[in-house]
Specification:
Layout (H helix, E strand, L loop, with lengths): L2 H5 L2 E12 L5 E2 L8 H18 L3 E7 L2 H10 L4 E3 L5 E4 L2 E3 L2 E6 L3 E6 L4 H6 L13 E7 L3 E9 L9 H8 L6 H37 L3 E6 L17 H13 L4 E2 H8 L12 E3 L2 E3 L2 E5 L12 E8 L2 H4 L3 H4 L8 E7 L2
Parallel strand pairs: 1-3, 2-6, 10-11
Antiparallel strand pairs: 1-17, 3-7, 4-7, 5-6, 8-9, 9-10, 11-15, 12-15, 13-14, 16-17
InterPro entries: Endo/exonu/phosph_ase_sf, Endo/exonuclease/phosphatase, GPI-anchor_lipid_remodeler
GO molecular function: endonuclease activity
Protein name: Endonuclease
């Protein structure tokens, strides 16, 4: 086997929340949030070090403000193909909010598409017909060795920050700030408002993926910061099973549109290796949670007769979260990048 053929036996896919990637002199969210040139260089060096060490073939990014800077950084690191479909919102001159998602690839991208919610389905969900994703998901069709065209989606679902503040609701409802019980209830409602948006985004995106899948039959890779646990009620629509539809269309019909957690696919094939708890990808105070995921279509399920590749390895890069060194990690990220290694079936 030639060196080139050997290199194509495996493919690596990573999801990477960059945590406020913005080049100075621009600021994120507040005029005080501006990196010095040294801090910005540290951040770029940290990202480059990860990429150079693990060499993913395709990387989905979240929290991108400076898209041109990221494109240049990745191009220099050996990723000539780049996809972005949105621009961050400028709140006030040099202050930015609403970062975007992006994708970088070593292999050609044949098509780039901005995912927009279907207004008819949004209305059926009780949403306004002009409902939009918090961050517009990217769909990039990457032509991968041995697999051919593959639809790679990058998402960053709505955070748990409420759609409104407690203070806004208190004023609207005529509730005094000193009314503690009412304030607690308002705060719970604010959090639920974010959950409604997050769950709606997941349902609307799965519909778009299914539509595209029906039209092309391309393999699907969905990656990103989900801002919730995958099997929570809010996000379960991404991986849910409807036994009524299976009874109608059959198991194979369901499998064609199913998405599965890459970690679980890895665990099924490597049970003895994964006997330890799944590493968290984000920590709030001391509480860890898995918020970053890579989901795969049935072409990556070894139990499916349509399987083209399987998850050989799953890696969570969390050293900077568990054992940070200031000189190395002070301007890294608050998430752990996750990466899977796919072994192509020959």
């Amino acid at each position: 086997m030639s060196t080139e053929s050997a290199a194509q036996v495996q493919l690596k896919i990573a999801s990477f929340n960059l945590f406020n990637f913005i080049a100075p002199p621009d600021a994120y969210y507040d005029f005080n949030n501006i990196y010095s040139e040294q801090q910005w260089q540290q951040k770029c060096d940290w990202i480059t070090a990860y990429v150079n060490q693990y060499r993913p073939d395709v990387i989905g990014f979240q929290e991108v403000f400076s898209t041109d800077a990221l494109r240049e950084l990745l191009n220099a690191a050996g990723y000539p193909y780049f996809a972005v479909v949105d621009i961050p919102e400028v709140a006030d001159e040099f202050i930015y909010r609403s970062p975007v998602v992006a994708l970088a690839s070593k292999y050609p991208i044949s098509a780039i598409h901005a995912c927009r919610a279907a207004p008819e389905l949004a209305a059926l969900l009780g949403l306004s017909a002009d409902f939009t994703f918090s961050r517009t998901p990217v769909r990039a069709t990457v032509v991968l060795p041995d697999l051919g065209p593959c639809d790679c989606y990058v998402v960053h679902f709505k955070s748990k920050r409420g759609q409104f503040s407690v203070e806004q609701a208190q004023e609207l409802l005529g509730v005094a700030p000193s009314a503690m019980q009412a304030s607690f209830a308002i705060e719970a409602a604010a959090k639920w408002s974010a959950a409604i948006v997050r769950g709606s985004e997941a349902s609307l995106l799965r519909y778009l993926i299914a539509q595209r899948r029906a039209a092309t039959a391309y393999p699907v890779i969905l990656m990103g910061d989900f801002n919730d646990t995958l099997h929570s009620g809010v996000l379960s629509s991404l991986v849910s099973t409807d036994t009524r539809l299976i009874a109608t269309y059959g198991e194979q019909g369901f499998d064609d549109y199913r998405l599965q957690d890459a970690y679980q696919l890895f665990e099924q094939s490597h049970y003895s290796v994964t006997a330890v708890a799944r590493p968290a990808t984000h920590y709030h105070l001391t509480q860890g949670a898995v918020l970053d995921y890579i989901l795969l279509s049935n072409e990556f399920d070894p139990h499916n007769d349509q399987c083209l590749a399987e998850v050989e390895h799953y890696h969570t890069y969390d050293r900077h979260l568990l054992n940070p060194e200031y000189a190395r990690d002070s301007h890294s990220t608050d998430h752990a990048p996750v990466m899977i290694t796919l072994k192509i079936r020959q």
